[in-house]
Design a protein that fits this description.
It is a single chain. The chain is of the alpha/beta class and about 240 residues long. It is built from eight helices and seven strands. It has helices at about 25-50, 65-75, 90-100, 120-130, 155-165, 175-185, 205-215, 220-235, and strands spanning about 10-15, 55-60, 80, 105-110, 135-140, 145-150, 190. The protein has a seven-stranded mixed β-sheet with strand order 3-2-1-4-6-5-7, with helices on both faces. Helix 1 (about 25-50) runs parallel beside helix 2 (about 65-75) and helix 1 runs antiparallel to helix 8.
């Protein structure tokens, strides 16, 4: 088993409602299929996370009790908390702050778009926080799959929020570049973990299937969901 990373982990996730998650995959999978795959991503990410992190919190949307996410949290013995109001930046800033004030460790925040993310990437991000206040994990689409922070930032948290979580063009290919430029301009110590890819678009499914063919046991929920969806598509 991989050596545990001594950081708290936040997983940002939406309730897998058809038509409201993984919408860019709907042309390839349909609304029900995209939601099914999203649910599988969350399950596999939580399964791996709780084996390696001392504290795993699923930060959910919508805020009302989400039944599918709640069942996954229970199954994998994680914790859950609502994301709250605001855009993505406001919700990430709130989640990080809540966790940082309740721990002496650094905190990593990830989404659910990179289920194949190797454990080594999280270990690298943890190592970066030994010498920087912040770490980003670049994704191939110009955003980031991970952001990490240390409790030292709490002393001037409003500056962090203003620099990194306000006025960013969320969803664009400029997210990481803007975040890095504004963080450094604000005098924050920023590091980068290795890059990885998100599964957002139909073309990304090819790479996902390639990874699963190498080791389907690592992502059992995702492998089962893709197998089911492929069978249904062949039957149509």
């Amino acid at each position: 088993m991989t050596t545990p990373v001594a950081l708290d982990l936040i997983v940002m996730a939406k309730e897998p409602q058809p038509g409201r998650v993984k919408t860019r995959l709907i042309p390839a999978l349909g609304a029900e299929g995209a939601a099914r795959l999203h649910r599988a991503f969350v399950g596999d990410i939580l399964r791996r996370a709780v084996e390696r992190h001392p504290q795993v919190t699923l930060c959910h949307a919508p805020d009302d009790h989400p039944p599918v996410l709640a069942s996954l949290v229970t199954r994998h013995s994680a914790r859950m908390t609502p994301q709250g109001d605001g855009d993505l930046g406001a919700r990430m800033a709130r989640a990080l702050h809540t966790q940082l004030v309740n721990t002496e460790r650094g905190v990593l925040l990830i989404g659910t778009d990179s289920p194949t993310l190797p454990d080594a990437m999280l270990i690298d991000a943890a190592a970066q926080l030994d010498r920087a206040d912040l770490v980003f994990g670049p994704s191939c689409d110009g955003g980031y799959y991970l952001v990490g922070a240390t409790p030292t930032l709490l002393a001037d948290w409003s500056r962090v929020v203003e620099a990194l979580f306000c006025g960013i063009d969320w969803g664009s290919d400029r997210v990481l570049a803007q975040s890095l430029a504004r963080g450094r301009k604000a005098g924050l110590s920023v590091a980068l973990a290795p890059g990885w890819y998100d599964v957002d678009r139909p073309d990304d499914l090819t790479l996902l299937r390639r990874h699963l063919s190498d080791d389907p046991s690592g992502l059992p929920d995702t492998a089962a969901a893709l197998s089911h969806l492929s069978h249904r598509q062949r039957s149509v």
